[in-house]
């Protein structure tokens, strides 16, 4: 007598959804909507910072706290979310975080004081941390290894669409209605995307809940430290975490203060037009997926370093007083950043022999920690030394990171030659 179908399935190791399958398409679509729900809400104030600063009578660095406090909340939450996901499942954790963030996002624009707005933005960021903390681990478990890098690149491309949607929606609405209704509108968009994620996400088949450690809280803490220690002992993973901190911080610093540059002489653009330059994000949508395909042929190290060098070149071009030149430079800058980020984020999961959720969370801790700290500090550079000092400093950081990455990941290049 042949074994029952369920028994055969239970004995068969789950290999993941293959590219082109219905499950693969639903998973990618669900994560794309999760990216919209997360990144549209996280960065929507970025296009509104000049208006927020003007209305509230505060300087650029203080206005940028509406972005930095959200990313700080996300940065401190990614590790806790990774452990929650190990217990209750990837989809359940992401669903809980997105729902909580949507509620907080709708409350934020109603805050009567700037201080309360910052508190709500921090909590919203902490809730949004569920998606970047878990998405790559979810992909690694549910997509076949053959297509995991491509799926990660596609997911990163989807996050660029989310960030772009929030910025493009907020800018024109702020000119018409003010910054508070603009942020509210983006939160409504995030709520719709959250519903789409919940409906589309396929049931996890590669996930096994982490066993409850014997010995209570102390044993659980020891197990957590052990998992994190495994990631922190890897020089190559540490290099990826450092790259995430420096490149994302530099990237956010440029985008945080680009509006101040464009609304001042010689450009003097209104917020509705200045926000259109965020269309440069579409270059990241293309470059992250393209870089993933190139990495199959040329290796991750070469493609990641090339993306970082392109980012530096774009930053240098941003010193121009020509609007056309600034747009071209911004496209190159953005494409280079997302190419490097797409490779690095997917590589983190591949390098982690165990504790993939924690490895991804440490990457995101560096990524959003850089966004918070360097994104805010860029305002101080802008106030003290001006725009050119800011973007040339970003170029120097990118070139230094490219050199460090080339040295740190030499083992891969040697393996490909052997």
Automatic annotation (TrEMBL):
How does this protein sit in the membrane? Multi-pass membrane protein
List the InterPro entries: MFS (IPR011701), MFS_dom (IPR020846), MFS_trans_sf (IPR036259)
Q: Which residues form a coiled coil?
A: none
> In what residue span(s) does the Major facilitator superfamily (MFS) profile domain sit?
27-413
Q: Which residues cross the membrane?
A: 23-43, 63-84, 96-112, 118-139, 148-170, 182-202, 237-258, 270-290, 302-320, 326-353, 365-384, 390-408
Keywords assigned by UniProt?
Answer: Cell membrane, Membrane, Transmembrane, Transmembrane helix, Transport
Similarity remark: Belongs to the major facilitator superfamily.
Per its UniProt record, what PANTHER family does this chain match?
A: BLL2771 PROTEIN, INNER MEMBRANE TRANSPORT PROTEIN YNFM
The name this protein carries in UniProt is MFS transporter
Give the species this sequence originates from. Answer: Sinomonas cellulolyticus
Q: What is the lineage of its organism?
A: Bacteria, Bacillati, Actinomycetota, Actinomycetes, Micrococcales
């Amino acid at each position: 007598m042949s074994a029952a179908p369920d028994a055969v399935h239970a004995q068969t190791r789950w290999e993941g959804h293959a590219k082109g399958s219905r499950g693969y398409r639903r998973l990618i679509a669900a994560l794309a909507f999760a990216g919209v729900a997360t990144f549209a809400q996280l960065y929507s104030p970025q296009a509104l910072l000049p208006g927020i600063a003007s209305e509230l009578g505060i300087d650029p660095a203080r206005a940028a706290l509406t972005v930095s406090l959200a990313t700080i909340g996300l940065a401190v939450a990614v590790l806790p979310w990774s452990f929650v996901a190990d217990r209750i499942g990837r989809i359940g954790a992401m669903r809980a975080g997105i729902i909580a963030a949507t509620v907080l996002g709708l409350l934020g624009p109603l805050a009567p004081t700037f201080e309360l707005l910052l508190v709500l933005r921090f909590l919203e960021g902490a809730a949004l941390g569920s998606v970047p903390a878990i998405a790559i681990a979810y992909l690694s478990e549910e997509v076949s290894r053959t297509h995991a890098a491509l799926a990660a690149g596609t997911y990163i491309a989807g996050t660029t669409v989310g960030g772009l949607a929030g910025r493009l929606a907020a800018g024109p609405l702020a000119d018409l209605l003010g910054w508070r209704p603009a942020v509210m509108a983006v939160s409504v968009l995030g709520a719709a995307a959250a519903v789409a994620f919940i409906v589309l996400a396929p049931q996890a088949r590669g996930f096994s809940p982490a066993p409850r450690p014997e010995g209570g809280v102390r044993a659980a803490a020891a197990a957590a430290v052990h998992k994190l220690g495994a990631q922190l002992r890897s020089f190559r993973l540490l290099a990826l975490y450092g790259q995430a901190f420096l490149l994302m911080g530099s990237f956010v610093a440029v985008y945080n203060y680009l509006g101040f540059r464009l609304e001042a002489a010689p450009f003097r653009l209104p917020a509705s037009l200045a926000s259109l330059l965020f269309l440069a994000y579409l270059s990241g949508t293309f470059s992250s997926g393209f870089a993933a395909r190139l990495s199959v042929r040329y290796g991750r190290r070469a493609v990641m370093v090339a993306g970082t060098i392109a980012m530096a070149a774009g930053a240098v071009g941003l010193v121009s007083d020509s609007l056309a030149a600034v747009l071209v430079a911004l496209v190159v800058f953005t494409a280079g950043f997302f190419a490097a980020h797409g490779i690095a984020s997917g590589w983190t999961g591949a390098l982690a022999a165990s504790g993939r959720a924690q490895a991804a969370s440490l990457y995101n801790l560096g990524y959003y920690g850089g966004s918070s700290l360097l994104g805010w500090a860029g305002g101080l550079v802008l106030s003290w030394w001006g725009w050119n000092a800011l973007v040339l400093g970003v170029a120097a950081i990118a070139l230094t990171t490219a050199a460090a990455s080339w040295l740190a990941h030499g083992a891969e290049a040697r393996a490909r030659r052997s």
